[in-house]
Amino acid sequence: MQKLIIDGGTPLYGEIPVQTAKNAALPIIAACILTAEPVVIERCPRLKDIDAMLDIMRHLGCSCEFVGDDLTVCCNDVALNVIDAELTGKLRSSIFILGAILSRCRKAYISHPGGCEIGLRPIDLHISGLKSLSVDIEDDCGVICCDGKNMRSGIINLDFASVGATENLMMAGALLDGETVIVNAAREPEIVDLAAFINAMGGKVSGAGGSIIRVVGVKKLHGCRFRPMPDRICAGSVLAAVTATGGAVTVRGVVPEHIFGITEKLKHIGAKISVRGDTVRINADGRPKPLRKLETNVYPAFPTDMQPQFCAVLARASGSSVIVENLFENRFGYTSELLKMGASITVRDRIAVVNGVSALHGASVRACDLRGGAALVIAALSAEGRSVIHDPKHIDRGYESIETLFSAIGGKIRRSSDAN
Ligand code: UD1
Questions:
Q1: Helices 163-173 + 97-105 axis angle, to 10
Q2: Pocket test residue of 162, 305, 307, 369 for ligand 1, highest count of atoms within 8 A of CB
C-alpha cells in the first residue's frame, strides 16, 4: 500500500501554478454527453475522480482520450446502460450526469450513489428538480430509473442551493424546448464555468453566478475547445500550508476573487497576502493567530472544502478557535488523526473547538477523505519530525500529485510504495 512520508518543520518558498479545478472539470465532462461532436477539455486534471467519471462516460459508449494534458471526449452514440453501483460508488457526485443523459436520450438509469465519508449526501433535490421537468422517476431496488418521454422545460425552486443539483438541472434543460428557470441556484464559480461551457457548445444559459439561472433549450449543441477554471481549493490548500509552515510562496494562475473568502481568513490569522493579476503571493511566519469563529457556507462564504485544511493551521494557533461546519454533517472525521499529531480538538456535532498548541509532532496517520487528507499533509508539513500518511488514495482524488506540489516549494514530502 502507498504512503506519503513527510519530514515537517521546513518553511515553504517558491512559485507554483495551480491545477485545473476538479469540481469544474467533472460536470463539464458529464456535459459532453449533450453533444454528438468531439469536445476538447484543455488541461484536464489527472485525478482519481476524473478517472472515475471517464469510466462512467466509457460505460455509456463515449470515447475519452488524453493527448498530453488535453482530454478529448466524443459521445457520438450514448448507450442507455445502467450506471451500476460499482461506478457510482467511486464517485458520489456521479448523480449529476443524469441531467445530461436525460436531456440527450430522454431515459437514464443510475444506481443510487449512497452515503460517503463526510455525510449522507442525499439526492432529493436532484430528484425533485428533475420531476419538476416532468421526468418520471422510480427507484427499482437501488437503481434510479428515469423516464423523460414527457420531459419539458419548467421552473424549479431548489429548497437549498445545492451545487450538484444546480449543475444537473442546467444540463437537463440544455436541449429541452423552451426556458428552464432554476430558482435559488448555487452561485459557486464552478456553476459559472459550466454555464460558459454549455454556451461554448452553442447553448443558451444566463444568470449563472446569481440565484436565478435561465436555460433556454436549443435543438442541438456542437463540439468545442474549453479550458476549465483554476482550482480554488487547491490554491487555498497551498496558501493554508504556507500559513502553517511559514515562508513565502507565489501561486500562479488563480482567479483571486474566487478565493477571497479564503484569503480574508488567512489575513485574519496573520498571513500577508498580495494579489497581482492572476497571482497571489503569501508571506507568513510565526504561529498563526486563532479565529474566534470560522463558519462554512455556500459561496461566496468560506468553503466547506477548505474547513479541514484551516483546522490543521489553527491546530498550532496561539489561542482557541471555533469551527462551525454548516454544509456536511460528518466532516470532522480527520480530527482524530490530528490528535495523534498532538493537536487539541474537541468535536461536538457540527462544531469543533481547536485549542492551538505550540507544536505538532510527526505521527502515523490515515487519510479517510479528500480534504481531511490534505489537512493531514498540511499538519505534517508544519509538525516536528516525520509523519507517515497511509493509503493516500483519497488525496489523489483531488490533488494531481500532492507530493510534487509541495516538494516544488521545498516541502520534504515523498511517496513510497514499500510494503513496510
Ligand atoms: C459539491 C462539491 C463538493 C463541495 C460541495 C459544497 C463537486 C463535485 N463537489 O458537492 O466538493 O463540498 O459542493 O460546496 O462539485 N444535499 C441534499 N439533497 C440533495 C443535494 C444536496 O440534502 O439533493 C445536501 C448535501 O447533503 C450537503 C449539502 O446539501 O449537506 C451541499 O451539497 P451540494 O451543494 O449538493 O454539494 P455537492 O454537489 O455534492
A1: 10
A2: 162
